[in-house]
Amino acid sequence: MFGRLLCRALSVMAGPRPVVLSGPSGAGKSTLLKMLMKEFNGLFGFSVSHTTRKPRPGEVNGKDYHYVSREVMQAGISNGEFIEHAEFSGNLYGTSKAAVQEVQARNLICILDIEMQGVKSIKKTDLNPIYISIQPPSMDILEKRLRDRKTESEESLQKRLRAASVDLEISKEPGLFDVVIVNDNLDDAYRELKGALIEEIQTVQGSTKA
After folding, report:
1. Given this model, what pLDDT does residue 142 score?
2. 187: which of 30, 74, 79, 158 lies 20 to 30 Å off by Cα?
3. 149 flagged as catalytic
4. What quaternary arrangement does the UniProt entry report (predicted)?
């Protein structure tokens, strides 16, 4: 069972409209984000989430996630420091207010990579982001991508697949996402993502030239 969500209103700061990116692990969110931040270097800021899970090989604390103990994260949640949080496979994940505000304060487009529960929580705030869902072409392809990673046990993989199936069904809810991108071809998916964000990109580019 997912843990109880806590969501407190986050005041809108002056700055570019944030972007909430959601989709199951293996859909290609991380790859698309890296492409976006490479092409538009200096325009986007990545909101680094907190988690209580252990780092995977190659992951860096403070870059991929802020890896903290359950006690530390629960204290932050109790103190109202998080916009959203959820529990998945026994681990807490969450986005802190400070992480978003720090990016917005630098006049950057803040990217939030959020689980489905978090998307619904942010909908209850006044953050007003652009909501984008990145989805795999099929569950079979998603399973292959996850297996090819060779980073999880069979039990963990099956839990992830079950959660992905539920999330993809929820994502069909009218009005939940502004844009849905099916990542069948990486280049095509990237063009769609860039097209969805071009207005904000041009706004930031214009303000930096002024």
Report:
1. 93
2. 158
3. yes
4. Monomer. Interacts with RD3.
pLDDT at 210 over 50: yes
CATH of the domain at 30: 3.40.50.300
**Higher confidence at residue 13 or residue 197?**
197
Please tell me the distance from the alpha carbon of residue 193 to that of residue 91, in angstroms, as a whole number: 29
CA distance 54 to 151: 12
Could you count the other beta carbons within 10 Å of the beta carbon of residue 62?
8
Q: Cα separations (Å) of 170 from 22, 23, 132, 158, 166?
A: 12, 11, 14, 19, 6
CA dihedral 87, 152, 154, 49 (to 10 degrees): 10
Decide: 127 and 18 in contact? Cβ < 8 Å: yes
Residue 17 is among the residues annotated as catalytic for this protein: no
Task: Write out the residue range of the structural domain in which residue 26 sits.
Answer: 19-202
Tens of pLDDT, residues 9-40 = 344 455 788 999 999 989 999 999 999 989 99
CB 116 within 8 A of CB 134: no
User: Tell me: the pLDDT tens digits for 88-101?
Assistant: 889 999 999 888 88
Cα–Cα distance for residue pair 105/79, rounded to 1 Å: 22
Residue 6 included in any domain: no
Say which of 106, 149, 162, 191 is annotated catalytic.
149
For the chain, the domain total comes to 1
CB 82, CB 127: distance < 8 Å: no
The single residue of 4, 17, 53, 56 carrying the catalytic annotation is 56
Token reading at 168: 């993809």
